[in-house]
Amino acid sequence: MSGSDLSHIPFSVLDLATVAQGYTPADSFKHSLDLARHAESLGYTRYWFAEHHNMISVASSATAVLIGYIAGGTDRIRVGSGGIMLPNHSPLIVAEQFGTLASLYPDRIDLGLGRAPGTDQVTAKAIRGENFETVHSFPNDIKKLQLLFSSENSSNEVRAIPGEGLDIPIWILGSSTDSARLAAALGLPYAFASHFAPAYFKNAINIYRDNFKPSEHLQKPYILACVNVVAADTDQEANYLATSVQQFFMGVVTGKRNLLPPPVDSMDDIWTIYEEAAVKQMLTYSFIGGPETIENEMSSFIADNQINEVMATSHIFEHQAKLRSYELFAEVFKK
């Protein structure tokens, strides 16, 4: 299958503002802006940040603030959340924040919503306090948010100013099958976290497609798949660079979170066979290699799953290598 088959597929970026060893969050933010400008010049469709908390290597906790920073430093690329973890916030506050962003940067802001805490249970308790069980009100909170964004809400006692009457696209994020049913029922676009939850991917997108109900927002199903990408000029170089993301996910598996480490020549002395198996399972949907490898594997992935858009996240230690990876990935879609 040739790369020309991918020319109709939008391609985008998921950024966690990853903090690498020897660097600070301030460095990460500067690198994010540099990457966003690079992505915009390469034809990427959107640049999203993910909300995470209490993770030493992830600095995207104040997601709405970073969205404003990136939107203010770019001209055209859509900027948004992949996602805002809605149970951590009141719908009114989210409506006001994203209403502010959409007022500053019209027709450029996306609001992706997730139901997970984006952190561990102890931190989730610290964020939510007495509202710890708010995950169960996720569907109703989305409807509250839609109401706050609607012009019809102008006669209600509680209004989102700014936010009311603005057309801000809402996406449902998922890493299991639950959100697939919700996105289908609400007739909203669905973004799946296949970059860390591959086991549920195929089942979830099938449930979404089979149960989709058209809405005023969307007439037919729209699936965005987020995947890990490490592209380089050769397969050998890409496999070397990918040892950083393997170590990163090993920290997730073992619970020993560290700053993003530099690549290593071999992982053999770093992980056990059990850790290796667990990491490789989580990284099932990872595209690692030179241009030809990436093109062949990405063509098969899109054809097999009939997805509408691909979002790449790249935990690459060295900033210039990361820029080059996104450059090579873009070329696959532009042939």
Folded structure, characterized:
- This protein is an alpha/beta fold.
- The chain has helices at 25-42, 63-72, 91-104, 121-128, 138-149, 178-186, 201-211, 235-241, 243-254, 273-282, 291-305, 319-334, and strands at residues 11-15, 46-49, 78-85, 109-114, 170-174, 190-192, 223-231, 286-289, 309-313.
- Strand 3 (78-85), helix 3 (91-104) and strand 4 (109-114) form a beta-alpha-beta unit.
- The longest helix has 18 residues, at 25-42.
- 46% of the residues are buried.
- The model has no long low-confidence stretch (mean pLDDT 93).
SSE diagram, text form:
Layout: E1 11-15, H1 25-42, E2 46-49, H2 63-72, E3 78-85, H3 91-104, E4 109-114, H4 121-128, H5 138-149, E5 170-174, H6 178-186, E6 190-192, H7 201-211, E7 223-231, H8 235-241, H9 243-254, H10 273-282, E8 286-289, H11 291-305, E9 309-313, H12 319-334
Parallel strand pairs: 1-2, 1-9, 2-3, 3-4, 4-5, 5-6, 6-7, 7-8, 7-9
Helix pairs in contact: 1-12, 3-5, 6-7, 9-10, 11-12
Number of strands: 9
Sheet/helix structural class? alpha/beta
The overall pLDDT, averaged over residues, is 93
Give the overall form: globular
Distance between the termini: 12 Å
Number of distinct helices: 12
Helical amount among residues, as a percent range? 40-55%
- SSE arrangement, N to C: EHEHEHEHHEHEHEHHHEHEH
Q: Compute the gyration radius: what is it?
A: 19 Å
Share of β-strand residues = 5-15%
Report the sheet with the most strands, covering strand number, pairing sense and barrel closure: 8 strands, parallel, barrel
For the largest beta sheet, what order do the strands appear in spatially?
1-2-3-4-5-6-7-9
Q: Unreliable runs, pLDDT <50, ≥5 residues?
A: none
